[in-house]
Amino acid sequence: MSRCAAALVDAAVVAAASALTGFVLSGIRYTVDGPPFSLPPVPGWAIGVGHSVLVLLYLTVSWTLVGCTPGQLVLGLRVVTADGRPPGPWRALVRALVCVVLPIGVLWLLFSRRTLAVQDLVARTVLVYDPPRW
Asked: What is the DSSP letter of 80?
């Protein structure tokens, strides 16, 4: 349950970042072209690719720098390697890629004795409980 709640918090953060990006792009377009203030026409595939890249960056940077995303921090979860440290940039990128490409991989938890998701198996990481110290 805590993974789902953390994912919801992270989805809200990414949605806010996407909205801010759209607002900034609209402001740039308005400054260059003049009125009206509106989003530039962007094909649907470009929005999907842009969103996927944003999610990859968000997850990779979060896991590399502190070992958790803001949603995981709030719920006391942390991604670590076998030695208990946050994953390095490559391992975090691999984990993020699996999360984006195979989001249903988290269902593997239901069958795993060690409660590992597919992204944990591929990246050789573990999600541990680490309550915030605030």
From this structure: E
- Number of domains present in the structure of the chain: 1
Count, residues in the chain:
134
- Chain mean position to CA 82: 21
Rounded to a whole number of angstroms, the CA Rg of the chain reads: 17
**Cβ contact 58:13 at 8 Å:** yes
Parent domain of 65: 2-129
Residue whose structure tokens are 């260059």 = 32
- DSSP class of residue 88 equals -
Q: pTM for this structure?
A: 0.83
Evaluate whether residue 134 is within a structural domain: no
- Quick: pLDDT tens for 53-98: 999 999 999 999 999 999 999 999 999 998 989 999 999 999 999 9
